[in-house]
Amino acid sequence: MKKISLILLGCLITTIGVIILKHSNIVTGGTAGLSLSITYLTHLPFALIFFLINLPFYVFSVLRMGWNFTISTIGAVSILSLMTAVDQWLPNFSIPMLVGAVLGGLLIGIGLSIVFINGSSLGGANILALFLQKRYNVNPGQINFIFDLIVVVSSIYSVGLIRGLCSILSIFVTAKVISYYKNEIALKTTQRSVKKEAYAA
């Protein structure tokens, strides 16, 4: 129950970060950033786009991370999709780009770290980052930053150069926060692997 509560908390914090970025009219990386870019271009609901984009990544998750992690990730992605849907009922407001970039990036980094530490992810490159950390001890913050940077650079068309630069600042802050918690994330991942092997034996 504690694990589920912490994943919910991580999703809530990440949701607030995503909403802040949306009202700053900037994007983040990964599938969340890609979803925001599509939302700006098509005006379709973020929650729906975010959920659909993550579907292909579940196949990789099942093959490389196992069913428990995948089911937990599907649950976390679904929860985040539902939570971000609340934004459509919020009053219209705007946040300065720099404030939104730093605050949104900080909250997303904290939220993702909580989700990672508790054996889940929010889909997309998060899954690959945790897999590479588990298999090769690669810093998940660095992996997330590389993939996020690709998404943000490709999204400059929809948000413009200045907002694109603020978006890069946002994912840099997110990557730094995740990197700060990388040892705790690695420790929890190792402990789960040991428990799983002991159970199988």
3D structure, described in words:
The protein has one domain. Helix content is 81%, strand content 0%. The protein has ten helices and no strands. Helix 1 packs across helix 5, helix 2 runs parallel beside helix 8 and helix 4 packs antiparallel against helix 5. The longest helix is centred in the N-terminal third of the chain and has 22 residues.
Q: Provide the gyration radius in Å.
A: 16 Å
Give the tally of β-strands: 0
**H/E order of the elements?**
HHHHHHHHHH
Proportion in β-strands? under 5%
Helix content: over 70%
Pfam families: YitT_membrane (PF02588)
Keywords: Cell membrane, Membrane, Transmembrane, Transmembrane helix
Membrane topology: Multi-pass membrane protein
Transmembrane segments: 39-60, 67-86, 98-131, 143-162
What layout of secondary structure does this protein have?
Layout: H1 2-23, H2 30-42, H3 46-54, H4 57-65, H5 67-84, H6 97-117, H7 125-136, H8 140-159, H9 161-180, H10 182-200
Helix pairs in contact: 1-5, 1-6, 2-3, 2-8, 3-5, 4-5, 4-7, 6-9, 7-8, 8-9
InterPro entries: UPF0750_membrane, YitT
Membrane topology: Multi-pass membrane protein
Transmembrane segments: 39-60, 67-86, 98-131, 143-162
Can you summarize this structure?
The protein is mainly α and 201 residues long. It has ten helices and no strands.
Can you tag this structure with a few keywords?
YitT, globular, YitT family protein, 201 residues, single chain, transmembrane, membrane, mainly alpha, 81% helix, cell membrane
